[in-house]
Amino acid sequence: MIARVRAGQPEAYAELVRAHTGIALRAAAALGAGPDAEDVVQQAFVKAYCALGRFRDCAAFRPWLLSIVANETRNTVRAAARRTTLAGREAALVGAEPVIPESADPAVATLETERRAALLAALEQLSEEHRLVVTYRYLLEMDERETAEALGWPRGTVKSRLNRALRRLQRLLPEGGAPE
User: Fold this and answer.
1) Which UniProt keywords apply (predicted)?
2) Does the structure show a pLDDT above 70 at 142?
3) What CA–CA distances, in Å, run from 26 to 15, 36, 40, 58, 140?
4) What are phi and psi of 24, to 5 degrees?
5) How far apart are CA 172 and CA 83, in angstroms?
């Protein structure tokens, strides 16, 4: 599809945009873009289009795009000189994808909501690199290779930072609240 875009077929890029908008929005929201997530994703797609000449043919598009989304999110948050609150991030994540089915038992739903809030609060306490690796690997459900590509890190670095981040999360979470 990238070859078609490079050959001047705009409908091919439209297909790429449609295929990756959902994950890009989830990434922007998870990384703190809050209400600016759509603007961040739109700008990331523009930058990706302009940079297609530098895209390696053998690389996967999704991790490459998500690294642009992450950079654009970081730039937007810094330029606005504000930090998104935990509640804002949680609302963005909840809005991106239903977490608890409507038919769930209210007691189970309450427990899941509390666990999610505890996890997001613990994520806030991690360093940026640890928060990024956990977000990409688990919240965005990227495999190890994609996470490494998106972050521009060797796979061994992803493994070691993920291991450290998960150990730190385990210490930060209340008993029984650790992710599985």
Assistant:
1) DNA-binding, Sigma factor, Transcription, Transcription regulation
2) yes
3) 18, 12, 11, 25, 7
4) -65, -40
5) 21
